[in-house]
């Protein structure tokens, strides 16, 4: 169904960046964990969802402070990620069929998380108010946005720059890059690879939780949340290149923009556009638009 | 009536222990006799009447299942306290359709084959209802739809390529055609000519828009149709869709968004300044769940419809139901609660008038049935099995006494099947009425 109104305005760009920003926060963690550990973490969408629910619980039941809720949400997910990595994924690293085992284990956590969320919060949908300081409308290009939506876009840029500095300019970052290139050599040179892996898994999980918590005021919070975003995240990392930091960023903004302008051109069926983009990338550039971690 | 499974089980058991022919025949005959008696009143269970309820009780639309449960439990309690159905206790077994046709089909089969229910009612989703109707006919089991609104459910098979209506499927709530007829009549009264829609990306979303346009044209409403948006179910962030509609700047928008999707949309639309820019928003499922209750994001002054209004008609039956319901649940009854409540009473009336729980007897009793309930007096059209209940549209207002959103003022559009069909004009859309 073709929409009669089909033009792209500033509001669409902002909507696209807003959608892309929260997708970036989940996709970059997924890409980071794959790039360094080689683990395709199916539970990453569930981590994002846990971040949103923890932020909701903290705000509603513990302390009415949104920023603390975001911090606790992200940290809680980071800790959960560490427990899962140490407890269930680490023993699988040396296995011949480790990849398949990792997929099955992480998918198991998707199901467990889904049911646990339903057990604790039920199947209802919840919403979370943005922090009062950012809960006011801003008019841009004739459209109205909450200041919080603009803040999330800024937060994604800050995270992107911070991660880039961290990976390329710090000692820990050089260890990460070195280990992702040659795990055995890094180990021979004295790098504590298991501990590094756990640290990276914490960071990736933390970012997913941060994404979920920051996105909570922009969307409904329901047990289906993790499944929605993990599909987008996989599309992004395939388009951007598995394991690529810049690829995750560009891919997320690209998919976010497609999702924002898609409805302008196709009232129905536009959800297929990102999938088509992914297919085209796979056909003509199977390694993604950007290759190699840290690029 | 029972479906004969018990007889088969008895025979298998008798053969397995090696009894002689005479004992086998006597046992089988006695078993068949008992099964027949039990089947006449009580279906598969040894005694009592068992009904199967199929609603969405999890996920984005679980509110609908919860509301329906309140309604049918209240009815079952009232009936059982009052001596049951022909002296037999009524039991309701609930199953979750998860808004998924495959799941709903599996649950339907299970209710019939494993629970041996005497009758079925429920369904919240048009898509699921369209998928299930042929199965209902295959099982030859009466089904009273209380919510799913697609006209194709009661449009007799063959009338349209999507029609799935058959002898076994009935609907006691008004359907989408009846509801949208009221929407077009409402639009006629508003100072709006350019209309848009935002609805869920499946049959119900598209049909609402198609019927709205057809009724506007059939009723000569001065209307142009501009933008349309169909976000998927459980969309978390509606901002692109809201932006797209607002860019088209229509005077009015009709939206059949429902369940948690409606709640999500409302908050985000309000933040985007939707209700400042767009003059009229018509919520065709707005009064569907506990959205009307305190804290509802439904915006006062906008228009919404309902299949049942707790204050309309102002009859003893409706007032009494409203009081009993609010005493029990401390909130006003929604249409899904009333539809489910009424379905149980309709089975009671049908079983008692037929003196049987046999499927064909119940179907005969329901066909053309005249019934009275909180929603008022109505009759089933023998051609479609659709109840001729009115369309109710009104303005969303907050009522301090009830601490709830209500429709005030409210307009009741009573229309016969002929009127509805005429109003569809040159369209090839079936009314299902």
From TrEMBL, chain A:
Annotated localization: Cell membrane
GO molecular-function term, one example from the UniProt record: transmembrane transporter activity
A GO BP annotation: amino acid transport
Keyword annotations of the record: Amino-acid transport, Cell membrane, Membrane, Transmembrane, Transmembrane helix, Transport
Any one Pfam family match given in the protein's UniProt record, by short name: BPD_transp_2
Gene Ontology cellular-component terms listed: plasma membrane
Entry keyword annotation includes Chloroplast: no
Transmembrane intervals: 23-54, 66-88, 100-121, 147-167, 196-218, 230-255, 267-284
Family: Belongs to the binding-protein-dependent transport system permease family. LivHM subfamily.
Entry protein name: Branched-chain amino acid ABC transporter permease
Lineage of the organism: Archaea, Methanobacteriati, Methanobacteriota, Stenosarchaea group, Halobacteria
TrEMBL record, chain B:
Pfam families per record: Peripla_BP_6
Taxonomic lineage from the root: Archaea, Methanobacteriati, Methanobacteriota, Stenosarchaea group, Halobacteria
InterPro entries per UniProt: BCAA_transport, Leu-bd, Peripla_BP_I, TAT_signal, TAT_signal_bac_arc
Keyword entries, A-Z: Signal
Name assigned to this protein: ABC transporter substrate-binding protein
NCBIfam families given in the database record: TAT_signal_seq
TM region positions: none
Residue intervals of the Leucine-binding protein domain: 49-390
PANTHER family associated with the record: ABC TRANSPORTER SUBSTRATE-BINDING PROTEIN, LEUCINE-SPECIFIC-BINDING PROTEIN
């Amino acid at each position: 169904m073709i929409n009669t109104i089909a033009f792209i305005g500033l509001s669409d760009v902002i909507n696209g960046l807003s959608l892309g920003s929260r997708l970036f926060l989940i996709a970059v963690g997924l890409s980071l964990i794959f790039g360094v550990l080689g683990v395709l973490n199916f539970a990453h969408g569930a981590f994002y969802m846990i971040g949103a629910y923890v932020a909701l619980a903290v705000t509603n039941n513990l302390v009415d402070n949104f920023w603390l809720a975001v911090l606790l949400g992200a940290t809680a997910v980071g800790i959960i990620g560490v427990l899962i990595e140490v407890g269930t994924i680490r023993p699988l690293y040396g296995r011949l069929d480790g990849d398949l085992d990792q997929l099955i284990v992480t998918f198991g956590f998707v199901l467990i998380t889904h049911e646990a969320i339903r057990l604790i919060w039920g199947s209802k949908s919840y919403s979370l108010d943005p922090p009062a300081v950012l809960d006011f409308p801003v008019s841009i290009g004739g459209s109205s946005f909450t200041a919080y939506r603009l803040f999330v876009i800024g937060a994604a840029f800050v995270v992107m720059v911070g991660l880039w500095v961290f990976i390329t300019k710090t000692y820990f970052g050089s260890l990460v890059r070195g280990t992702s290139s040659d795990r055995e050599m890094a180990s021979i040179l004295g790098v504590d690879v298991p501990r590094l892996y756990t640290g990276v898994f914490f960071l990736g999980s933390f970012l997913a939780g941060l994404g979920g918590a920051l996105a909570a005021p922009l969307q409904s919070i329901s047990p289906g949340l993790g499944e929605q975003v993990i599909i987008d995240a996989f599309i992004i990392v395939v388009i951007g290149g598995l394991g690529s930091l810049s690829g995750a960023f560009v891919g997320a903004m690209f998919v976010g923009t497609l999702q924002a302008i898609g409805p302008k051109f196709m009232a129905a069926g536009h959800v297929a556009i990102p999938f088509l983009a992914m297919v085209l990338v796979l056909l003509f550039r199977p390694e993604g638009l950007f290759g190699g971690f840290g690029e | 009536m029972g479906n004969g499974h018990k007889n088969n089980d008895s025979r298998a058991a008798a053969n397995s222990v090696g009894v002689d022919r005479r004992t086998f025949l006597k046992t089988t005959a006695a078993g068949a006799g008992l099964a027949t008696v039990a089947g006449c009143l009580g279906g598969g269970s040894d005694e009592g009447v068992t009904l199967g309820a199929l609603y969405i009780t999890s996920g984005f639309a679980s509110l609908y299942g919860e509301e329906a449960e309140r309604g049918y439990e209240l009815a079952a309690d009232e009936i059982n306290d009052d001596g049951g159905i022909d002296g037999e206790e009524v039991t309701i077994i609930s199953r979750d359709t998860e808004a998924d046709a495959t799941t709903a089909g599996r649950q339907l089969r299970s209710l019939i084959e494993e629970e041996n229910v005497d009758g079925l009612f429920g369904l919240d989703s048009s898509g699921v209802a369209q998928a299930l109707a042929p199965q209902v006919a295959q099982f030859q089991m009466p089904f009273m739809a209380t919510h799913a609104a697609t006209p194709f459910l009661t449009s007799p098979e063959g009338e349209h390529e999507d029609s799935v209506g058959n002898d076994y499927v009935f609907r006691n709530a008004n359907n989408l055609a009846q509801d949208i007829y009221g929407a077009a009549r409402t639009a006629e009264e508003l100072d709006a000519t350019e209309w848009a829609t935002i609805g869920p990306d499946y049959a119900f979303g598209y049909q609402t828009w198609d019927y709205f346009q057809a009724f506007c044209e059939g009723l000569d409403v001065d209307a142009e149709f501009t933008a349309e948006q169909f976000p998927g179910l459980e969309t978390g962030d509606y901002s692109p869709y809201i932006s797209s509609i607002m860019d088209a700047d229509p005077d009015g928008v009709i939206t059949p968004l429902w369940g948690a999707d409606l709640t999500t949309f409302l908050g985000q639309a309000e933040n985007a300044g939707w209700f400042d820019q767009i003059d009229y928003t018509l919520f065709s499922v707005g009064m569907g769940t506990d959205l009307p209750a305190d804290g509802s994001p439904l915006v006062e002054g906008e228009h919404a419809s309902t299949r049942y209004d707790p204050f309309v008609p102002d009859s003893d039956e409706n007032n009494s139901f409203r009081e009993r319901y609010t005493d029990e649940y401390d909130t006003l009854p929604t249409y899904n609660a009333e539809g489910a409540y009424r379905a149980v009473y309709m089975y009671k009336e049908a079983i008692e008038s037929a003196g049987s729980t046999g499927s064909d007897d119940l179907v005969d009793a329901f066909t053309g049935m005249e019934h009275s309930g909180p929603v008022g007096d109505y009759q089933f059209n023998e051609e479609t099995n659709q109840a001729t209940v009115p369309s109710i549209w009104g303005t969303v207002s907050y009522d301090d006494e009830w601490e709830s959103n209500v429709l005030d003022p409210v307009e009741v559009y009573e229309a016969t099947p002929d009127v509805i069909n005429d109003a569809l004009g040159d369209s090839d859309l079936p009314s299902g009425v």
